[in-house]
Design brief:
Blueprint: H1 2-34, H2 36-39, E1 43-46, E2 49-53, H3 93-109, E3 132-133, H4 135-149, H5 153-162, E4 164-165, E5 176-178, H6 179-189
Antiparallel strand pairs: 1-2, 3-5, 4-5
């Protein structure tokens, strides 16, 4: 029996080392060399301080900032340790009530906007951490942000346009606006 157990344990130890130590170290090292920004968490620095990641949304509530997509994480919004959607089905009254409440709050905050509230401003993403909004969601908020910052609407619209990323590789997905990067650019305008 020992003659069969020893090779099995040796193979187990070897595979554990290869797949649990060597492979992760090699791929991490290669990623740090080839893609240092992404391998480091896509962190955004501002005035020498890390202020967030371009991959995880943040909660902005002031009128002078663009608001991101609602987060379904708890107990605090955009909690990376609690990533996940609300798991409420489309016929669940709690989901419908939550969306209705968000629509009413957005209409109250944007009385000049008569159009339809963009979906991504009232629904959460599957991860609850989405850092992006659609260009339509940013446009919906233009008047409020421009007024709160005493800026011309066209100047803020130009900034939104500059921070709109097109479809990945020109074909995958829709154009998006990174809320954190846009809000940092807004803050830089008024320095």
């Amino acid at each position: 029996m020992l003659q069969h157990l020893r090779p099995a344990l040796n193979i187990f130890a070897l595979l554990t080392f290869l797949t649990g130590v060597a492979y992760p170290l090699a791929t991490t090292g290669l990623a740090k060399v080839l893609f240092p920004y992404q391998a480091g968490g896509s962190l955004i620095e501002h005035d020498g301080k890390t202020v967030g990641s371009s991959l995880i949304g943040q909660s902005f509530t002031g009128d002078h900032y663009f608001w991101g997509r609602p987060s379904a994480t708890g107990p605090m919004p955009y909690n990376g340790g609690a990533s996940g959607g609300s798991n409420l089905g489309p016929t669940n009254p709690a989901l419908l009530d939550g969306i209705k409440g968000r629509v009413e709050a957005l209409k109250a905050a944007h009385p000049g906007e008569k159009g339809v509230v963009p979906t991504d401003l009232v629904t959460t993403s599957a991860s609850g951490l989405d850092p992006h909004i659609s260009p339509a969601a940013a446009t919906y908020q233009l008047e409020r942000v421009a007024t709160a910052r005493n800026l011309p609407v066209e100047q803020v619209r130009k900034l939104v346009s500059e921070h709109t990323d097109g479809a990945q590789f020109g074909i995958l997905g829709d154009p998006v606006v990174n809320v954190l990067e846009l809000n940092l650019a807004l803050d830089a305008l008024q320095r």
